[in-house]
Write a structure and sequence with these properties.
Elements: H1 7-13, H2 15-28, H3 32-69, H4 82-99, H5 105-111, H6 114-119, H7 126-130, H8 157-162, H9 169-176
Helix pairs in contact: 4-5
Length: 177
């Protein structure tokens, strides 16, 4: 671990978490602290647009599912797998735990993760959700069905931002290539 950092910085952020910053700082001749601060600024610049994207996708998909199943709690009758049902149960439990109340459908929808909504766009739901329902939530999307529908976030800037992972020069270069 580099000696240019105060002990409190290392203790607060954990040495393993700082390791990529130490390597990059040594390579680029900058301080670990300035690189870490820069990383926070990069992540912050992604946060607001990602939140708008998440809420927009969630609301568009929810609207189509409500219309298709003629009920606001569409997940009670939709052909979801066990993993998706578990995610819904966890979201409802979180709402109950936080508010001490029986969750409304709006509370459950808002508590579901972005990962949940993106999972409904996966290939396993093509026949049951994408083709009959969810394609209507994206009226301007015209890619072939075999593609990832353009919503892949694993390993992307979105996931890095939301998981507070480092954005380093090579990472940013690969994201814009």
């Amino acid at each position: 671990m580099s000696t240019d950092m105060p002990m409190w910085f290392i203790q607060c952020l954990a040495a393993p978490r700082l390791a990529p910053y130490v390597r990059a700082a040594q390579k680029d001749g900058v301080s670990v602290q300035s690189l870490y601060a820069w990383n926070l600024e990069v992540a912050a610049s992604f946060y607001v647009p990602l939140r708008f994207l998440e809420v927009s996708i969630r609301n568009a998909m929810h609207e189509q599912l409500v219309e298709n199943y003629s009920r606001p709690d569409w997940w009670e009758v939709a052909p979801l797998d066990k993993h998706s049902r578990t995610m819904i149960d966890k979201a409802a439990a979180n709402v109950r735990r936080q508010g001490g109340r029986q969750p409304t459908t709006d509370h459950v929808v808002a508590a579901l993760t972005f990962g949940f909504w993106l999972s409904l766009l996966s290939k396993r739901y093509d026949r049951y959700l994408w083709v009959p329902v969810l394609h209507k939530a994206f009226p301007y999307y015209h890619r072939d069905r075999a593609s990832s529908r353009g919503f892949a976030v694993r390993g992307s800037g979105a996931q890095r931002c939301l998981a507070s992972q480092p954005f380093l020069r090579n990472d940013l270069d690969s994201m814009t290539a």
